[in-house]
Structure formats: C-alpha cells, structure tokens
Amino acid sequence: MTIKANNTRHPKKRLIGADFFPLTMTYQARPRLTIMNSSSSTKQNLNNNKRSILTPQKIVTKSGLFILISTVSVFSLLVKLGMWQLDRYQEKKVWQQELTLRSNQTALNYTQLLTLPNQTQYTGLRLQTDINPTSNHILLLDNQVYQGQVGYLAYQAVEVLPHLPWLLVELGFIAASSNRQILPSIKTIPNSMTLTGRLYNKQTNPMSQDLMAEKGWPKRIQNLNLEQLEQELNHTLAPAVLQPDRLHTHTLPHPWKPFPMVADKHKGYALQWFVMAAVFILIMGGLLFREIKKQIR
Predict the structure, then answer these.
(1) Cα–Cα distance measured from residue 148 to residue 163, given in angstroms and rounded to the nearest whole number
(2) What is the DSSP string of 116-165?
(3) Within a 13 Å sphere around the CA of 266, how many CA atoms are in the beta-carbon half?
(4) Which of 206, 208, 207, 202 is nearest to 239 (CA)?
(5) Which residues is 162 bridged to in the sheet?
(6) Side-chain-side CA neighbours of residue 274 (13 Å)
(7) Sign (positive/negative) of CA torsion 48, 50, 53, 55?
C-alpha cells in the first residue's frame, strides 16, 4: 500500500514579536514623527523646552538682590551696635571697680592734686584740704535731675592757698522753679573750714560743651567747662571739682553720678540691638524667600 505524500503547504507561522523589531519600530514611528514635526504647536513646545534646558532660569531678580544687600547691611549694623554696647558695658564695669578701689584710698592733699599729670582721670579720688571763701559768687549748672526733680547743681569757687588755683566746691542740688526767669537763692560758704570729699570731672558732651554763661549772679551755666569758667572768674581753677562728704553750712543733697549711664544699662541696650537684628533677619529672610518662590513659578 502506497501512502501519498501530503503536498499541501501550510502557511508559515509569523514569528511572535516580529513587529517589535527595532527597525520595524523605526519604520512604523517615522510617519508619526513626520506628522508631529509638521505640527506648529509641537515645534513651539520643543523650542521652549530647548530654551529652558540650555538657559538656566533667573531666580534672583533686581528686587531680590536689593533685599539681600539691604538685609546684610542693616543686620551687620545692628550687630555692631550691640557689640559696641557690650564693649561699653565692660569698660563701665572695670571703671566701677576702679571707683570702689579709689574710695578706699587715702585722701590727697591739695598740693598732690595739683601735681598729678594733666591726663589724670580725677573722678573718684579723695581730697582733704582747708578752704578759705574769697567771694560770694554762686554758679548754677542747668538741666540737672535728682529724684525726678529738675533743677541745678550749685558751685562756689574757694581759695585754698594764695597764688594757687581756686577749687570749685559743689554746694548741692536745688530744685528749679516753674519760672526760669527766677533763679534759686543759695547762701555761700561763710568761713574757713576743712573739707573732705571726692573729686570728679564732668564728662564733656561733644554736641554741647561750651560754658554759655548768663549775665548776673548767681550765674546760670549750661556746661561745666573749667577752662572757659577760668576766663569768667578771671582766675585759674583746679582741674577737678570737690563734692564734700559733709557740708555743715548746707543741707542740700549731693547726687553722685560719675558717669551718665551705669554698666547694666549698656548690657540691656546690647540685648535690644541683638533682638532687633534677629527680628529684622527673619522678616527680610521671609521677603527674600517669597521673591525666589515667585520667580521659580
């Protein structure tokens, strides 16, 4: 028995994944790319993307740069002011310790006072000397405050020894009347006596240090300028003022204020400057962050 061969040809099976051959994918995608490239909107989007990739976005604008420079400048200034107040605090602290030491030292005599170097800081040194009043002229230093009252510090120039400079003695504080045309009446030191007390120099104000003496006696003055006062009195003066521990002929108070501000106040002011710097940097930092965020969008 003869078996006939089956010559029926079966169609070739298509390979699975033939359509995914790289060349096949390229040929199939090329018409689509041609269509996309021909679209004007697509071209515009591609160009925009190219620019954004090639050119970095400008984050800091002129306003942002101004905020940054202003922040650094003002912040540095506030910090420097705080450091300056801390330096003043340290200086005043050392000076207060020096005053304590001087208060326990032996009192100078008048000759020793006059032989001290010209650049000596006299405040706090003690002096004991005999005085002899030679005139009844009273000086009133204006714009003084004591225990909430506005008034004057009264002074009298007295003689210690003939042919030597006079010594300016503080008589005490006296309140001013509501009428500036009326000056208070103060009695002078009537006779010779021995005085013991501490010396001081009034700190000069760079904005106003002239004597600005008014006419008449008692004479109102605005600053304790000893050099100009010598011309007014026509006599030389000792380089410091004496504040007596006790003046038997007067009951006026003697406020002790060797410098306008105590050390602790400088420390408080330094803290205020530092807090202001911190608050300022937070505010300006927020503004700068908002400006950068706006540009990123």
Answers:
(1) 41
(2) S-TT---TT-EEEEEEB-----EEEEEEEEETTEEEEEEEEEEBSSTTS-
(3) 17
(4) 202
(5) none
(6) 11
(7) negative
Q: Give the single-character DSSP code of 17.
A: T
Residue reference for tokens 């008449």: 216
- What is the H or E stretch that residue 248 is in? none
Q: Which residues of the chain have pLDDT under 70?
A: 1-61, 63-64, 203-207, 259-263, 291, 295, 297
DSSP codes, 47-112: HHHHHHHHS----S-HHHHHHHHHHHHHHHHHHHHHHHHHHHHHHHHHHHHHHHHHHTSPPBPHHH
Helix (H) or strand (E) holding 1: none
What's the sign of the alpha-carbon dihedral 9, 13, 18, 19?
positive
Structure tokens at 89: 């605090």
Q: What pLDDT sits at residue 30?
A: 53
Contact 139, 154 (CB under 8 A): yes
What pLDDT score does 64 carry?
Answer: 65
- Distances in Å between the Cα of 67 and the Cα atoms of 32, 70, 71, 273, 290 are 51, 5, 6, 20, 11
